[in-house]
Amino acid sequence: MRRPVSRWTVLTVLCLSLLIVALDATVLHVAVPALTEDLRPGDQQLLWIVDAYPLVAASLLILFGTLGDRIGRRRVLLTGYALFGAASALAAFAPDAHVLIGARALLGAGGAMIMPATLSILRQDFPDRRERAMAIGLWSAVAAVGAAVGPVLGGFLVEHFWWGSVFLVNLPLMAVLLPAWPLLPESRSDAEGPWDLPGAAAAALGVLGCVFGIKRLGGGTPPAAGSVWLPLLAGAALLVFFVRRQRRRAHPLIDVRMFGNAAFSAAVGCIVLAMLALVGLELIAVQYLQLVLGLSPLRTGLRLLPLTFAAMAAGLAGSRMLLRLGPRRMVAAGFTLTALAVLGLTAMGQHDRPWLLTTAFVLLGFGLETTLFGAYETMLNETPAHRAGGAAAIGETSYQLGAGMGIALLGSVMNAAYAPHATGISPRDSAAAGRSLGEAYDIAERLGGAPGSALRHAARHSFVQGMHVTLLVSAALLVGGACAALRLPRVMECEAAGAGAVAKAAAQTVRPASDPARHRTATVAVRSGRAGD
Predict the structure, then answer these.
(1) Whole-model pTM?
(2) Mean predicted lDDT score pLDDT of the chain
(3) How large is the average pLDDT for residues 266-270?
(4) Long-range contact set of residues 239-248: C-beta below 8 Å, sequence gap at least 24
């Protein structure tokens, strides 16, 4: 008989798994100039090198999340490890852009296997809600660490080795994780009936079409209408087909009736709104720091570190905050704090104000992580354990969709508001300068003299004004998120000791019981850290 393994040991393995995915999501950014010089990709190829990973990962989350529920979450996670390792080696030694694009797509498939599996195993192995909240806090803190370390580690490797070395950092972690597979518990859904392959394919292609169309809509140059609306409409039609098919099936991949649960649907909506409001700001912040304030890439990364450290702190303190405040107040407070931080950033102009910037980033990181923590924890808690893989996939897909929509929406607002005008500039140069601040600087350098100086000043001024408008739109979205959080539960309900023991015993079985409600027979409402009557 298999010897039981500590849940915290399992959590360590899951966090290392997440660290790989989080690192790979950001480590490539600093290597793009070096690989561009070496492989000489075209504009479209470079776009696919960057976007292949998130596009494929987002489209396959539902497919692999629900597959794990059926055939075993550990099995899918181990397959993701193997695919991620092989794709990393292929990407590191890619001889041309086409091979690198294919390797990045395989990395996305591996990430889509790993991400929902880690959350669903965590949901299964931590039946007690207080322990699960602490585990989610550690899980999310590791994600913040990976996102922060990625660019720094990538910059060091590119400086001392070659661009392919940024992918090889995955291999030592894989060497640690693969031998640790016996430590992970196996679990699967007890649902009968065959796995719905047509439904899974429709969900994958539908999400792919929507995310691709949204990304094209948020691109720097105006895309052809067909390249935006055709994939968007096709993706939306496939998702409608998927939902209708799941409603008719006796054993659906995802029980869409979960969205009838106000707390579950509100938590998913909060994840979308948080990412919708904030992801586009990251791109604008990097441009502001480098092009307006004139900071180097290294100093830009250092300026963003307080945001990451604040997010880590919020993740580690999340379980205690959730216990004291409850989901509704915690998520609403996180949205409100983030909105205040975004409004504070509107005081930034063409001159550096480091203390204001650092304070705003700290508040923004803490508020954002507080919001996402409360939303993810509530979403998982409102999901039956045997549906954990599908719920985790919904959460991660909502994250990706919100991120894509945020880049498209806020990028469009920024592009509309940014319109530099300077005297003595030809209409052709003026139109080119209106595409981006970087292009305006290139044109200003080419023109030189008074016209170049005037264009540079006008472009900086217009960019800052456009940034302020974008920040106000983002703050309005965050206020909308705070309103949506009012549909979340007011208090955190935790299982009493007797019910927790039953749930713990059930969690150790290979197939969890089909009726998770019987494990919730005794609950106690926790207010301000104390049991209520």
Answers:
(1) 0.72
(2) 77
(3) 88
(4) 239/202, 239/203, 239/206, 239/207, 239/210, 241/202, 241/206, 242/199, 242/202, 242/203, 242/206, 245/196, 245/198, 245/199, 245/202, 246/196, 246/199
